[in-house]
Specification:
The protein has 20 helices and eleven strands.
Length: about 475
């Protein structure tokens, strides 16, 4: 018995996995996991020119990185596979043969030029263009004659007009469509390959897919695919069409948008859980605005919480979730960020002290040299602030250090020089880091090697002692 809920992700390996697609994968995965069903991965790689093995490999790696594991698919074949359409040609051939044998489909010999002409005539007459039925009634002799002209036929599916097709979209609700508006449509191209909507449907049927969540660019395929399922004697999956994922400004996100690829975000150092928390809320709402661990993401997913408005991907939101994810990340992950930017053996201390300030590995790379390296020369503004504090201020700081005072002791001695607030902390921070902001000073001071602190305070005093330029 197949599981009651079987979903799938069916990407075409023609480019990097982008956020719109991965959200589709996520929702299908969440739904299957929540229902205790199966999640399949099928590569729709029939476009030989645009599909590549490199893209397929990268796609599997991106999904695995996100933890969207598939119960069957590439690398995890079962009896319902293979899970690449390029290896399923004979199944499509069998389905074509069944349709032809029942006269539910017929060869169409019209050339592209003839079809285009018919289209223009219909448009000019103010009618929606659809196949005019030229080849629908050809008998065997008529077909032979057309073939003898050297025409390679497509295969068209017959659509009987006069029927109202009705179904319920999992996201968009009740739908209706007049069959007469469809026209007979192509299921096999002239080169013998299956049209997208055909192989997609045949595989969903063969693989026992019960629910399909996909982009709303596929809405128009649904009535056709439902007719095909009926002709093949099977129940179609329930379809739900997700509103487009757009950029924060409303512009379309696409795989051409480099920064919108999963791989780019991974390389930048985003954590998978951050991505899942953001994507799970794009066009879907959870009962809480707060952080959700993976089991809670699964438990809280609901088809009726899918929305119809375009969903906005927003880097600021993603960074919000990244902050939450970093906060919860295992030390080992963050120590990995620090590695190579701090002296060997200092990773753990450095991470423990500074993780509250990190969002991305770049931050670790940024602060490693500040703590353990040579500071660059002070900018004019920093030098002015350091000098303005005066030699007595720096003498007090050095005395506190020499006396082994803790942070509170240091601040107390500096206050005694008459400075407070920003007038105290700003020059101190600049002297120690050359930066106007960053981690808490007391944290930095526990981290800085004492000889480094001393050298920086001495340099600050020298600046204050130098005659003003
Ligand atoms: N290969 C199709 C796509 O990536 C799949 C569509 C579907 O999910 O049915 O758009
Ligand atoms: Zn024709």
């Amino acid at each position: 018995m197949p599981a009651p809920v079987t979903t799938r992700f069916a990407p075409s390996p023609t480019g990097a996995l982008h956020l719109g697609n991965v959200r589709t994968a996520l929702f299908n995965w969440l739904y299957a996991r929540q229902a205790g069903g199966r999640f399949l991965l099928r590569l729709e790689d029939t476009d030989r020119e645009r599909s590549s093995e490199a893209h397929a490999t990268a796609l599997l790696a991106d999904l695995a990185w996100l933890g969207l594991d598939w119960d069957a698919g590439p690398g995890r074949e079962d009896a319902l596979g293979p899970y690449r359409q390029s290896a399923r040609g004979e199944r499509y051939a069998a389905a074509f043969a069944a349709l032809e044998a029942a006269d539910l489909a017929y060869p169409c010999y019209c050339s592209a030029g003839e079809l285009e002409l018919a289209r223009r005539v219909q448009l000019a007459a103010g009618r929606p263009p659809r196949y005019p039925g030229t080849c629908a009634g050809l008998d065997a002799a008529g077909r032979r004659a057309r073939a003898a002209e050297g025409r390679a036929p497509t295969l068209r599916f017959r659509v009987a007009p006069g029927e109202t097709l009705a179904w319920t979209d999992l996201v968009r609700g009740p739908q209706q469509f007049a069959s007469g508006d469809l026209g007979d449509f192509v299921v096999r191209r002239a080169d013998g390959s299956a049209a997208f909507l055909f192989s997609n449907l045949v595989d969903d049927l063969a693989m026992g897919v019960s629910h399909v969540l996909r982009g709303e660019d596929h809405v128009a395929n649904t009535p056709r695919q439902r007719l095909l399922a009926r002709a093949l004697g099977a129940e179609p999956p329930a379809y739900g069409h997700l509103p487009l994922l757009v950029g924060s400004g409303g512009q379309p996100l696409s795989k051409r948008d480099g920064s919108a690829s999963v791989a780019a975000l991974r390389v930048e150092g985003f954590l998978p859980e951050a991505l899942l928390n953001h994507l799970g809320r794009l066009g879907h709402s959870y009962a809480t605005e707060g952080w959700l661990e993976r089991p809670a993401l699964i438990a809280g997913f609901a088809l009726n919480a899918l929305g119809r408005a375009p969903a906005h991907f927003d880097r600021a939101q993603l960074l919000h979730w990244q902050r939450e994810a970093v906060h919860r990340a295992p030390a080992a992950t963050l120590e990995g960020w620090a590695r190579g930017h701090v002296p060997p053996g200092r990773e753990a201390a450095f991470t423990a002290a500074l993780r509250a300030n990190w969002l991305l590995p770049a931050d670790a790379a940024d602060w490693g040299p500040v703590v353990y390296g040579e500071l660059p020369c002070a900018t004019a503004a920093a030098a002015a602030s350091i000098a303005a504090a005066g030699t007595a201020f720096w003498d007090a700081a050095l005395a506190a250090l020499a006396a082994g005072a803790d942070y509170a002791g240091l601040v107390a001695r500096l206050k005694a020089t008459g400075r407070t607030g920003a007038a105290l902390f700003r020059p101190l921070r600049l002297a120690l880091t050359q930066r106007p902001d960053g981690p808490e000073l007391h944290t930095l001071l526990t981290l800085l090697p004492p000889e480094t602190t001393r050298a920086r305070l001495v340099a600050a005093r020298a600046l204050a002692a130098a005659p003003a330029a």
